[in-house]
């Protein structure tokens, strides 16, 4: 593990080099140093048949030495991650709930619903809990998403539970910056055979894996709001009220410094006074009371600078990542969460973290993280850079008018974390939503960053903050991520006030906004494309430079928050699949609802029959009128998405003979009759046609719950005075779908 992402803290003109010690990275460039707990060892003889978990012994032990006495009575909190029963379904749901074109868009779930639909079974979770309790461990949290269990116990109890020996070591730091003291198991972690298939990771036993904290103008809150055009929203008194922003933190901080920052920049305060809107939740002992290196204070103050009246929850982690993520997903309180750390995780550990991020996406939480401060060199601290559920925020260097905040120049920062990770995790692939101008299609990895914000300056630092009672300047993408989080809080608040952030499911949230950002594809009214700057060499040997469109330095560039808010007022489309397929006229031959959901050659097939002038099948001496075959399908559009502004039917199918006309009828919910909506051509080879349903018909064809019923018919009439009867035909439909557009 190599050094990475160091930046500077300047105090009274001095620069302090960062200390990078543990297996985590603070993405502002300074390290969070925490004392390892003095621990003991124990090894119990087991009766259970045990199975070893892979990658649970630290390779660094080969270079380390055991030190001091072990203390079996010291306490440890562990996170036991469970395997979701429906992993692929969870990932598919996260894609659907984040896609404006999907009928599931923003239909967020509660943690309990995530667990019921996708997590481990209740019996599996109970079996793991029962085992942990049998070994004397205390269950501190059984996550309702059924993907993690937090438990605590003494070193002796934990060692016995996982059939290992725990000792204390001194060895080389993860970034080779010196030696550190840490706790670790000396043999693989084991779990009983009967629960081994349920468990994917156990974290917290060792303390070596820790996060690492990741201008020419030094910016103040007013300058930042002006630079990224959050000022019109802020000045309209949307200042974060009612929004909750979480901060994932593993550093010391002082709320007295936050109060000084509020006073320095005359920020508004809630009725309870300065910092009364900040809640601290300590996890596994927390780190907040420790030495404040600057990262903790930076995160808090950057959020306050943009959204001073938001509710802020600091998830104050002691060491482990999984404990914090599990608590955040379980609480389901934060609408937006920002993190400024990089992690060096094993693949099982990354999988466990990814599952918690999937749960938060399903719940509508927007999670973002600083992309790093060492350009294309992640130095092993590359999680969550390769997690598609996390918005990665890179860095720029902005020069502004120091009175108005107007942009003079903005270029890509050389330290902006960008590129891709080579970690072989199953989810580290190019997401389906990550497409757009400039995005490579030949690299099947999660590519970063997605978006950027001012991060660094030349000598003076990127932002002013208070740290240990003094006003200092500080740089790094660790400032970019919380700044973006605060700005997004203002956007959500304004959208909510305008009725553009309706309740879908559990919460009023934007959710995983990566989809929206890439669908907007760098549109020039919302994003400023940064085309100057570079940040290193990519894993394929190519130089990483700013280019038109998306790039590995700044993503799609920097955002205009007010225009981004306005962009949600424009129309957007939703694909609406049918929920039924019913033969109305003709003779059914083959197929069902599944036949018309996808264009796959599995058709819904009807044979025509002859009808008379009344529309009934010809019988007796009745005079034939036409050959017909028809089917009906039901659809439901979500009217809470906005105002239905356009409706089209997309029909893929064919007819066995030429000369047959296609017709679409809508069901009038008031009269109980079908009315002709439009006509279309049918072809002897399969083709897709789009037909428009007039807006004037919406009041008839769409009921108050958004239900729509369409009848699709093929008809060939008896010809003229000759009375020539047309031939029978076969009508096939491969896919039928509605395209609904909404405006807010």
Secondary-structure map with pairings?
Layout: E1 9-11, E2 14-16, E3 24-26, E4 50-52, E5 65-66, E6 75-82, H1 87-97, H2 111-118, H3 122-134, E7 138-142, E8 148-154, H4 155-161, E9 166-172, E10 179-185, E11 190-192, H5 193-196, E12 199-203, E13 212-213, H6 221-227, H7 231-235, E14 244-249, H8 255-264, E15 278-283, H9 295-306, E16 311-317, H10 321-331, E17 336-339, E18 341-343, H11 347-362, E19 366-370, E20 391-400, E21 407-412, E22 451-454, E23 463-467, E24 470-474, H12 477-497, H13 514-520, E25 527-528, E26 534-537, E27 543-545, E28 558-559, H14 561-567, E29 572-576, E30 582-585, E31 587-590, E32 604-607, E33 609-612, E34 624-636, E35 643-655, E36 661-668, E37 673-681, E38 687-692, H15 698-701, E39 707-717, E40 730-743
Parallel strand pairs: 14-16, 14-17, 15-16, 17-19, 19-20, 20-22
Antiparallel strand pairs: 1-2, 1-24, 3-18, 4-11, 5-9, 6-8, 6-12, 7-8, 9-10, 13-18, 20-21, 23-24, 25-28, 26-27, 29-40, 30-34, 31-32, 32-40, 33-34, 34-39, 35-38, 35-40, 36-37, 36-39
Helix pairs in contact: 1-11, 8-9, 9-12, 10-11, 12-14
> How far apart lie the N and C ends?
49 Å
Give unreliable regions as ranges. 1-22, 29-46
Q: In percent, how much strand structure appears in the residues?
A: 25-35%
> Helical stretch count?
15
Annotated CATH topology of the largest domain: Rossmann fold
Number-wise, the strands total 40
What integer is the average pLDDT? 89
What would CATH call the architecture of the largest domain? Answer: 3-Layer(aba) Sandwich
Oligomer: single chain
Number of domains: 3
Shape: globular
- Kindly provide the radius of gyration, computed on alpha-carbon positions and rounded to a whole number of angstroms: 30 Å
Query: Level of helix content?
Result: 10-25%
Largest sheet: 8 strands, mixed
CATH class designation of the largest domain = Alpha Beta
From the helix content, strand content and strand pairing, which structural class follows? alpha+beta
Name given to the CATH homologous superfamily of the largest domain: Peptidase S8/S53 domain
């Amino acid at each position: 593990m190599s050094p990475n992402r160091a930046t500077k803290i300047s105090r009274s003109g001095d620069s302090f080099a960062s200390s990078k010690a543990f297996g985590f990275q603070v993405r502002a460039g300074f390290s969070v140093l925490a004392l390892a707990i003095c621990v003991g060892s124990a090894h119990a003889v087991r009766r259970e048949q045990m199975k070893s978990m892979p990658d649970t012994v630290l390779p660094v032990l080969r270079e380390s030495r055991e030190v001091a006495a072990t203390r079996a009575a010291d306490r440890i909190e562990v996170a036991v991650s469970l395997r979701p029963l429906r992993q692929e379904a969870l990932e598919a749901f996260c894609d659907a709930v984040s896609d404006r074109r999907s009928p599931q868009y923003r239909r967020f779930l509660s943690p309990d619903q995530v667990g019921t639909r996708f997590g481990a079974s209740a019996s599996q979770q109970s079996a793991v809990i029962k085992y942990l309790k049998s070994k004397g461990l205390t269950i501190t949290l059984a996550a309702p998403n059924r993907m993690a269990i937090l438990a605590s116990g003494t070193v002796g109890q934990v060692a016995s539970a996982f059939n290992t020996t725990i000792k204390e070591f001194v060895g080389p730091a993860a970034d080779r910056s010196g030696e550190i003291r840490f706790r670790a198991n000396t043999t693989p972690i084991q779990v009983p055979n009967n629960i081994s298939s349920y468990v994917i990771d156990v974290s917290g036993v060792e303390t070596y894996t820790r996060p690492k904290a990741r201008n020419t103008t030094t910016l103040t809150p007013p300058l930042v709001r002006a630079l990224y055009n959050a000022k019109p929203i802020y000045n309209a008194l949307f200042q974060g009220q009612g929004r909750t922003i979480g901060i994932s933190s593993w550093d010391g901080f002082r709320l007295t410094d936050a109060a000084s920052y509020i006073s320095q920049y005359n920020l508004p305060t809630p009725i309870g006074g300065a910092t009364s809107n900040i809640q601290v939740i300590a996890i596994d002992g927390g780190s907040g009371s420790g030495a404040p290196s600057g990262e903790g204070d930076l995160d808090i103050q950057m959020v306050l600078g943009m959204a001073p009246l938001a509710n802020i929850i600091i998830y104050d982690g002691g060491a482990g990542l999984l404990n914090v993520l599990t608590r955040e997903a379980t609480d389901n309180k934060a609408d937006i969460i920002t993190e400024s750390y990089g992690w060096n995780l094993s693949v099982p550990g990354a999988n466990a973290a990814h599952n918690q991020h999937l749960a938060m996406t399903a719940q509508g939480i927007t999670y973002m993280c600083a992309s790093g401060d060492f350009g294309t060199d992640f130095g092993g601290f590359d999680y969550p850079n390769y997690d598609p559920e996390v918005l990665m925020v890179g860095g720029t260097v902005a020069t502004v008018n120091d009175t108005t905040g107007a942009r003079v120049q903005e270029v890509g920062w050389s330290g902006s974390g960008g590129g891709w990770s080579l970690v072989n995790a199953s989810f580290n692939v190019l997401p389906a939503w990550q497409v757009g101008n400039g995005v490579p299609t030949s690299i099947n990895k999660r590519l970063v960053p997605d978006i950027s914000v001012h991060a660094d300056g030349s000598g003076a630092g990127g932002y002013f903050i208070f740290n240990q009672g003094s006003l200092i300047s500080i740089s790094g993408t660790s400032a970019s991520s919380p700044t973006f989080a605060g700005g997004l809080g203002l956007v959500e608040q304004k959208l909510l006030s305008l009725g553009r952030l309706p309740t879908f499911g559990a919460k009023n949230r934007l959710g995983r906004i990566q989809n929206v950002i890439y669908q907007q594809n760098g549109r020039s009214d919302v994003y400023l494309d940064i085309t100057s700057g570079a940040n290193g060499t990519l894993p394929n040997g190519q130089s990483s430079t700013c280019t038109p469109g998306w790039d590995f330095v700044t993503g799609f560039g920097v955002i205009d928050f007010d225009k981004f808010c306005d962009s949600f007022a424009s129309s957007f489309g939703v694909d609406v699949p049918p929920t039924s397929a019913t033969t109305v006229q003709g003779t059914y031959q083959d197929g069902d609802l599944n036949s018309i959901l996808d264009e796959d050659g599995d058709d819904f097939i009807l044979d025509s029959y002859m009808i008379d002038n009344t529309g009934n099948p010809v019988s007796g001496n009745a005079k034939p009128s036409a050959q017909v075959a028809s089917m009906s399908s039901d659809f439901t559009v979500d009217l809470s998405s906005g105002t239905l502004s356009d409706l089209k039917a997309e029909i893929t199918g064919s007819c066995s003979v030429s000369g047959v006309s296609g017709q679409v009828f809508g069901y009038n919910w008031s009269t109980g009759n079908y009315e002709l909506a439009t006509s279309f051509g049918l072809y002897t080879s399969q083709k897709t046609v789009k037909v428009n349903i007039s807006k004037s018909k919406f009041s008839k064809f769409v009921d108050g719950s958004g239900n729509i019923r369409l009848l699709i018919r093929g008809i060939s009439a008896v010809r003229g005075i000759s009375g020539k009867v047309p031939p029978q035909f076969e009508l096939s439909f491969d896919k039928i779908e509605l395209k609904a557009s909404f405006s807010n």
